[in-house]
Amino acid sequence: MSKIIRLPGLIDPHVHLREPGATQKEDFETGTKAAIAGGYTVVLDMPNNPIPTISPQALQEKIDLAKGRIYADVGFHFGASSKSIKYFTEVFSRVFGLKVYMNQTTGDLLMEDDQTLEAVFSAWPKDLPAGRQGKPILVHAEGETLQRAISLAKKFGSKLHVCHVSLEKEVELIKEAKANGLNLSCEVSCHHLFLTDEDAKRLGSFGIMNPPLSSREDQKALWEGIEDGTIDMIGSDHAPHTKEEKQGGKPPYGVPGLETTLPLLLTAVSDGKLTIERLIELTSTNPRKVFGIPEQEDTFVEVDMEESYVIENQNLQTKCSWTPFAGMQVTGKVKKVILRGKMVYDGKNIFGPYGRILP
Ligand code: DOR
Ligand code: ZN
Ligand code: ZN
Questions:
Q1: Who surrounds ion ligand 3 at CB < 5 A?
Q2: Quick one: which of 206, 217, 222, 279 is 20 to 30 A from 199 by CA?
Q3: Number of neighbours of residue 250 by Cβ within 10 angstroms
Q4: Helix, strand or coil, per DSSP, at residue 284
Q5: What's the rounded mean pLDDT across residues 139-149?
């Protein structure tokens, strides 16, 4: 059986392509091949590299490295640190958002003290020329920390984007902040929708990430948030690490996700948990609107809604060659990706590189 339908190219607002500085995990070529194989034609890259993206030079280095090597379109987020505030207005037009790490995680961009956080929220530009959209401050703010981020956004009139919502109480805080008129959007990572702390035991270090896998009740709240519109988009938080690193003494946090997100979401459609219209909003319409992503002409993805297969490590494009979803049966397969009129994926092979650096 086969039922081919066409989707717009997917947009992932949250990936870690690891270049420069950690190309044993991923690089611009392998990461954007993984994107294309997963149906993504736009990805936005995070700044927590070993040398973080907190200066115009570091941003330029990423742009130069990506040039001519990317299979999907790539945009960048800038990193917040006490040292990067002075560059905000200079880099503003070349990035899609400002990432603020309010909890400890991979990299050393953690910001905790009130004074620096206030300086960051105050300095990120808000007033834009007519017709141009504001660029969000993206926060990694787990649990109680989220309340702090919301208060800061309220105080400084910031457009706030909450990354990887994973807890019921976070969904509630967001619902309340939206009801109070705050300019706020949020994303859920695919792994929090399809795995729980029960899977964490089986997965060992391959199931650790920040924020961690949560309980069944939390997961239920995420799906409810998807249904009632509290959740605006789904990101992969594609955060590859090598198998060796994951099996080592101090395994790093993070899991890859670019190639598994769409098949898992299509499986949810097939199971009646999600409509295809909502899937399109969550993975394309809303991220495009929130981050002001330019339209891609003649760009689309063809999926077979009825083809079932088992996710296997050996079929992945990501350099890390593993996924926490290995062994899972999914229904819904990416068969073809067209980028600006060119076939870039035929269901098996990737063609290019035809990606562009955004904006
Ligand atoms: O699990 C995570 N991995 N969470 C983060 O916030 C960072 C990411 C990474 O870069 O590996
Ligand atoms: Zn994060
Ligand atoms: Zn991340």
A1: 237
A2: 279
A3: 6
A4: helix
A5: 96
What's the gap in Å between 210 CA and the centre of ligand 2? 6
Give the CA-trace dihedral at 112, 113, 114, 117, to 10 degrees.
-60
Q: Which two tokens mark 16? A: 């870690």
At 100-138, the pLDDT tens digits run 999 988 888 898 899 999 999 999 999 665 555 689 999
Q: What's the CA gap between 181 and 143, in Å, rounded?
A: 21
pLDDT in tens, 3-28: 999 999 999 999 999 999 999 999 99
Record the tokens describing residue 273, joined without a space.
């948990």
- How much distance in Å is there from the Cα of 245 to the middle of ligand 1? 14
Report whether 13 contacts 290 (CB < 8 A).
yes
pLDDT band at 89 (very low <50, low <70, confident <90, very high): very high
What are the residues whose beta carbons fall under 8 Å from the beta carbon of 234, sequence distance 6 or more? 187, 188, 189, 190, 193, 226, 261, 265, 282, 283
CA of 344: how far to CAs of 29, 39, 209, 350, in Å?
A: 13, 10, 31, 5
Site to substitute for ligand 1 among 48, 111, 163, most atoms within 8 A of C-beta: 48
**Per-residue pLDDT tens for 342-356?**
999 999 999 999 999
pLDDT tier, 154 (very low <50, low <70, confident <90, very high otherwise)? very high
- Is 209 touching ligand 1 by the criterion CB < 6 Å? yes
Does residue 48 line the site of ligand 1, with CB under 6 A? Answer: yes
CA-based end-to-end distance of the chain: 40
* DSSP letter assigned to residue 92: G
